[in-house]
Amino acid sequence: MRQITLVTMCLGAAMALSACEKAGESEVDRAIQSVNVIDESNLSDLMLTAADANEAVAYYKRTVAEHPERIDLQRNLAKSLVRAKHNTEATAAWAKVVAMPEATNSDSVDYADALIRAGDWDKAEATLDKVPPTHETFKRYKLEAMVADGNKEWKKADSFYEIAVGLTTKPATTLNNWGYSKLTRGDYREAERLFGEALQYEPDLYTAKNNLVLARGAQRNYQLPIVEMTQTERAQLLHTAGLTAIKHGDTSIGRSLLQDAIDTHPQHFEAAVHSLNALDGV
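Above: the chain sequence. Below: its structure as tokens.
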């Protein structure tokens, strides 16, 4: 009897030990899974921001194939496609995201952005129209301004640009876009002001420098603005000013500016040489 009791106790202890081991293994598995999720999240963020754009696309395509139900991975695939400039594929990816139950208003705005990049302005406008007016973000209003610009709805465009600029601490590119809109409308003085304001926020924005020269040139003011510029940029801006002068019939001024551009450039400035030769009939 004592032997049976002893055997029973030993079996009970063994079973308890086995149960403890299984419970321990389960805890370890859960801990490993938690670490994997954290590592995966960190890798995902890294791939989206730091990796080569095409490498990121390949990574997200693999992970989406493994977890198609996860909207965060679908969203990052769409973002990486935009970053890699695969615009047509990006619109399809964003369409899939916005169709998912967890999709947000921000996803719809990003979908509209992808559509604009792909040149589908009508669908972009229709997508933005579905976003409730309570969703007030910089990106939403920037896109609204661009759509209004494309439709030549100038009052709406100006209103949306103004709101967008007020919703960001980095408005340089939006101010540049707004200035270019004014330039195309023939409001050269206001365009000049907006380009100058853009450069106050981002002094290295060459597009705004070039546009500023165009806006001044449209007023037949061919003197370069007082802004930060490298020697190469100065040569390029002189070239822009020279071509603008020639366009307005100020040929002698244009010829002089083109020669200055050639003399200023630290290397051979083929574009300016070609322009000058074409002017002189060489």
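The two ends are 120 Å apart (CA to CA).
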